[in-house]
Amino acid sequence: MAEIIQKQLGKRIQNLRKSKGFSQEKFAEAIGIATTSLSYIETGNGFLTSDTLEKISKILNVEPYELFLFNDIFASLSNEDMLKYIYEKLDSIKGSPEQLKSVYMYFKGIV
Length: 111
Fold this sequence. Notes:
This protein is mainly alpha-helical. It has two domains: 2-68, 434 Repressor (Amino-terminal Domain), CATH 1.10.260.40; 73-110, no CATH class. The chain contains six helices and no strands. It is globular and about 40 Å long. It starts with a helix and ends with a helix.
């Protein structure tokens, strides 16, 4: 069972890393581990410490539990549900100029 979780977690981290535009080398550097260690994590051949998990979630800008959402959650979400979630998240960061800048730069990059 642990091996299955390791592989799913690794794949999830890899997908999130790629979706944020990080190369494996740059991401490993950002979280302070060797590229080979990140490769082991992403292939499910190695597990990560809680410290590394926290760093990964911070760099990817996701809550730690979101790294463990292995199922395709988008299949069950409507556009309205996704927009509602986005609006709620935006509302929750309106008092944080740094987070707002990050979101702004992200949207500038995709539009």
